[in-house]
Write a structure and sequence with these properties.
Oligomer: single chain
CATH class: Alpha Beta
Helix content: 25-40%
Number of helices: 8
Strand order of the largest sheet: 2-1-3-6-4-5
Shape: elongated
Number of strands: 6
Order of helices and strands: EEHHHEHEHEHEHH
Strand content: 5-15%
Largest sheet: 6 strands, mixed
Radius of gyration: 27 Å
Length: 220
């Protein structure tokens, strides 16, 4: 279990917090990263592409010419695939690209991603990140004070904070997520993590398998 310093938004010491080893010192498995990121990106695909087959294409109705006596090949409709403007054979249709991955595997991948950032000393913990108004400039100033001005940063908080989320929207390499939405893809595509102190405990509650089992047994 590693101990990291907790700072204020003014970059002043505010104590320390223990990062649970079960979550932030897990084994890093790139194959799990690949599987989970592939699942996430597949779920984001719209899958709205479509084509018309010979029954949906407009036109047709009668034979282009009589069956025999013309010297040409028999044709039943000018909406057949071999005709210009005809239907498409085995064309794409609206579909979902989602596929499942066991929840334990997904949690293991997220633990590995967090452990990777912890091993890189890329996690900063603040006591809180309150926002009194919608101010992108305020977020930029805080990141500059914390030495993260030129970094790709993922801010992780407990619950939703519309002011903070909208204030980071115009910063090109900064995103804000609640603990419930924390995922492997966003952790890997940001070089630095900025966690609130409460978020550390919430992440542990979400990803620590021993704690999850203990809670399940107690509720049972």
């Amino acid at each position: 279990m590693a101990s990291v310093d907790v700072v204020t938004l003014e970059n002043k010491s505010a104590g320390s917090v223990e990062l649970p080893g079960a979550v932030f010192e897990a084994k890093v498995k790139p194959d799990l990263f690949h599987a989970e990121v592939r699942r996430q990106l597949a779920a984001r695909r719209a899958g709205t592409h479509s084509t018309k087959n010979r029954h949906a294409a407009s036109g047709g109705g009668s034979k282009p010419w009589r069956q025999k006596g013309t010297g040409r090949a028999r044709q039943g409709t000018n909406r057949a695939p071999q005709w210009a403007g005809g239907g498409v054979v085995f064309g794409p249709v609206p579909r979902s690209y989602e596929h499942s991955l066991p929840k334990k595997v997904r949690r293991a991948a997220l633990r590995g991603a967090l452990s990777l950032r912890q091993g890189e000393d890329a996690i900063t913990v603040v006591d809180a990140f309150p926002m009194e108004d919608f101010k992108t400039r305020r977020v930029a100033e805080v990141l500059g004070t914390l030495g993260l001005a030129d970094e790709s940063v993922l801010i992780v908080i407990v619950g939703r904070d519309e002011k903070l989320e909208r204030s980071t929207r115009n910063l090109p390499r900064v995103d804000t997520l609640p603990v419930e939405g924390l995922n492997v893809f966003d952790v890997l595509r940001h070089k630095r993590l900025l966690l609130t102190k409460d978020a550390v405990e919430a992440i542990e509650a979400r990803l620590d398998e021993a704690r999850r089992k203990g809670g399940a047994e107690a509720s049972g």
